[in-house]
Write a structure and sequence with these properties.
Layout (H helix, E strand, L loop, with lengths): L6 H58 L16 E5 L4 E4 L1 H7 L19 H14 L1 E10 L5 E12 L5 E10 L1 H22 L4 E6 L2 E5 L1 H7 L3 H4 L8 E2 L3 H12 L4 E9 L5 E12 L5 E10 L1 H52 L6 H30 L6 E5 H11 L6 E4 L6 E5 H16 L7 E9 L3 E8 L29 H11 L4 E6 L3 E9 H6 L1
Parallel strand pairs: 13-15
Antiparallel strand pairs: 1-2, 1-5, 3-4, 4-5, 6-7, 6-11, 8-9, 9-10, 10-11, 12-14, 15-16, 16-18, 17-18
Length: 546
C-alpha cells in the first residue's frame, strides 16, 4: 500500500527549509565578513606593534648613543624635548630645550633633578616614583632654576623608555613653559584675596543676588539685618524690604530687566528683630555675553542717622527762617520806636537853642549842641543795627551792577573831606549782584577810609583783579593805619578804633556779612602811620546763581 502524504504539511516543511537555507547563507556571509575584519584588525595590530618596536628601538639606540644628533629626529618639535636616563642625566635634547634651560648637553653634563627648586623636590620625587610605577606622567608641574638663575614654572608630560627585555632604561618628555600662566593665576588669586578682604571689612552691606535669592553676603550686610549668611539664603531682597508704592517697586525691578546696569534708591529694610532702618541701595547687574543677567550685586548703606540729622537740619532751618523773620520785624519795630523819641529830643533841643539863645550862656549852648550830636550818633547806631540785622537775611535781588556807577554814587552820597580824593585807577567790572548790598559793601569801606585820613593830602584808591573763580577788590588809603592786633577784631560788631564819634562799630561787620553771603573772604593789611588796604573777594559762581 502506497503511503499518502499530507500536502499541507509538505508545504510547511518546504518553507522551513527555505528559511533555514537563507539563515545559513547569512551566517556564512557574516562569518566571511568577520574573518575579513579580523584579518584587517590583526594587520593593523601587527603594524602598530611593529611601529612601537621600531620607535622603542630608535629611542633605545638614542639612549645608547650619547652624542647623537637630534636635528633629524626632532626637527618638527617646537616645545623643549628632553631624553634622560633613570638617574635624570640628560642624554640628548632639542634646540628648544637648550634655549629654554640655558644648558647645552653637548658641552656640559646636565642633571635635570638638580634644576628643580628646593620647594618642589619632595613632590618631584613622588611624581617620578609614579612614572616608574605607571610608565607615564601627565601634567607634572614644578618650579625650576635655569642657568641664568631665573625661576621658571613648567609642565611636563613624559613616559618611560624600555629595552628589548621590557626593562626601563630612561624617559623622554616635552616641557611647556607655564611661568606667565602661573604668574597670572597667582596675581588673580592675590587680587581675589584682597578683594575678599575689602568686601569682608567694608562698612557697606554687600550681597550677591541670583535668580532673586541672596546667595552670599558680607559681614556688614548680615549685621545690618541681623541674619546669618545661611539664614539670608532663604530670602529674596524684596522680602527684607518695605514697599510702600508697589508700582514704583516694580518699575525699579523692571529697569534692570530692561537693560539698565545700575539702579539706585532709598529703601526701608526689616531686621530679624522686626525693627527697620533706611538704607541707600545700589543694585548693579552683571551680564553674560548675550546680555542676560547672571547675578546682581547689592550694596546698602544705613542712612538712618543721616536722615534723622537731615530732618533735624530742615527743622532748624525752618525755625531759623522764622526766627530771622521775627528778628527783622523786631529790628524794624525797635528802630521805629527808638528813632521817634530821638527825633523828638533832637527837635526839642533845637527849639530850646533857638528860643532861649539869648538866655543861655555859652556853656548851655554847648550842652545843647552836644546833646544833638549824641542824638545823631544814636540815630546812626540804630540805623546800623537795622542794616546789620538784615545784611545776612534779606533776599538778594540780582541785577547787572556797574561798580563804576556804584563808586560814583558813593562819592556823591557820603561826606568826603576836601583834602581827601577817591580814585578808581582802572575800570571796574559790571557784575550780577544785589545793587543795595554792593552799595553797602563799598560805601562802608570807603566811608571808613575817608574818616580816618589825617594827612594834608588824602587818597583812597579802588583796585580790581579778575581771578579765575573770584573778583578781587582792594581799597587802599593813606590814613592813620590800624594796629595789627585789631586786624581781625574790626570785622566784629561794635568794634571800632579811634574816634568813637566817627564810627558806630557796625559798618565793617556788615561788610563781613555781605562778603560771606557771596562766599568770599575779607581781610586787612595795614601799617600804623602809613595806610591801610582793605581786600575782599566775591565768588563768581555765587554771583551768577543769585
Amino acid at each position: 500500500m502506497v503511503p499518502r502524504y499530507n500536502s499541507t504539511l509538505f508545504k510547511m516543511d518546504s518553507k522551513e527549509v527555505t528559511l533555514l537555507k537563507r539563515a545559513l547563507e547569512r551566517q556564512k556571509l557574516a562569518r566571511i565578513q568577520a574573518e575579513k575584519i579580523l584579518e584587517t584588525k590583526s594587520k593593523e595590530l601587527y603594524d602598530v606593534s611593529r611601529h612601537l618596536k621600531a620607535a622603542n628601538s630608535k629611542l633605545e639606540n638614542l639612549i645608547n648613543k650619547k652624542h647623537s644628533d637630534l636635528s633629524d629626529s626632532f626637527m618638527d618639535i617646537i616645545d623643549p624635548y628632553v631624553i634622560m636616563d633613570m638617574e635624570y642625566n640628560v642624554i640628548t635634547m632639542n634646540d628648544s630645550a637648550i634655549d629654554f634651560l640655558g644648558y647645552d648637553h653637548r658641552k656640559e653634563n646636565l642633571n635635570v633633578g638638580r634644576l628643580v627648586h628646593s620647594d618642589y623636590i619632595p613632590y618631584t620625587l613622588q611624581a617620578f616614583q609614579t612614572l616608574i610605577e605607571v610608565g607615564s606622567l601627565k601634567n607634572y608641574r614644578a618650579k625650576i632654576v635655569v642657568k641664568n638663575k631665573t625661576h621658571k614654572y613648567i609642565q611636563i608630560n613624559c613616559s618611560l623608555i624600555y629595552d628589548t627585555e621590557g626593562k626601563p632604561i630612561g624617559s623622554h618628555g616635552i616641557i611647556r613653559d607655564i611661568s606667565q600662566e602661573t604668574e597670572i593665576k597667582t596675581l588673580l588669586s592675590e587680587q581675589r584675596k584682597q578683594l575678599s578682604i575689602i568686601i569682608d571689612n567694608s562698612p557697606l552691606g554687600i550681597a550677591l543676588k541670583v535668580d532673586g535669592k541672596i546667595t552670599k553676603a558680607n559681614p556688614s550686610f548680615s549685621n545690618l539685618l541681623g541674619y546669618s549668611q545661611n539664614e539670608l539664603k532663604d530670602f529674596s531682597l524684596q522680602e527684607l524690604t518695605v514697599c510702600y508704592d508697589e508700582d514704583k517697586c516694580n518699575e525699579f525691578i523692571d529697569s534692570l530687566d530692561n537693560g539698565s546696569d545700575t539702579v539706585s534708591l532709598t529703601k526701608e529694610y526689616i531686621r530679624k528683630n522686626g525693627s527697620t532702618f533706611l538704607a541707600k541701595t545700589n543694585i548693579s547687574a552683571v551680564r553674560d555675553e548675550q546680555g542676560t543677567i547672571e547675578y546682581q550685586v547689592v550694596v546698602i548703606e544705613d542712612i538712618t542717622k543721616e536722615k534723622e540729622l537731615e530732618n533735624q537740619k530742615e527743622e532748624l532751618l525752618t525755625e531759623l527762617e522764622s526766627s530771622n523773620k521775627n528778628l527783622q520785624e523786631y529790628a524794624h519795630i525797635v528802630s521805629h520806636d527808638l528813632k521817634s523819641p530821638l527825633r523828638s529830643i533832637s527837635a526839642l533841643a533845637s527849639w530850646i537853642k533857638e528860643d532861649y539863645h539869648d538866655k543861655l550862656d555859652e556853656a548851655g549852648q554847648q550842652q545843647l549842641s552836644l546833646m544833638q550830636e549824641k542824638v545823631e550818633s544814636m540815630d546812626k547806631l540804630i540805623q546800623g543795627i537795622l542794616e546789620y540785622s538784615t545784611a545776612n537775611s534779606s533776599q538778594l535781588k540780582s541785577s547787572e551792577v556797574d561798580l563804576n556807577e556804584v563808586i560814583s554814587t558813593i562819592k556823591e552820597t557820603i561826606f568826603i573831606p576836601d583834602h581827601v580824593t577817591v580814585e578808581v585807577p582802572e575800570k571796574l567790572p559790571t557784575i550780577q549782584a544785589d545793587r543795595t548790598k554792593m552799595q553797602q559793601l563799598f560805601q562802608n569801606i570807603i566811608g571808613n577810609a575817608v574818616a580816618h585820613i589825617e594827612r594834608e593830602v588824602g587818597l583812597v584808591q579802588v583796585h580790581f583783579k579778575n581771578n579765575k573763580e573770584h573778583y578781587h577788590f582792594i581799597i587802599e588809603d593813606n590814613g592813620v593805619g590800624i594796629p595789627e592786633e585789631y586786624h581781625k577784631k574790626i570785622f566784629q560788631i561794635f568794634q571800632s578804633i579811634g574816634n568813637k564819634e566817627r564810627s558806630t562799630g557796625i559798618g565793617l561787620s556788615i561788610v563781613k556779612k555781605i562778603v560771606d553771603r557771596y562766599e568770599g573772604e575779607v581781610w586787612v593789611d595795614s601799617e600804623v602811620g602809613v595806610g591801610t588796604e582793605f581786600q575782599f573777594t566775591l565768588k563768581k559762581s555765587v554771583l551768577n546763581e543769585q
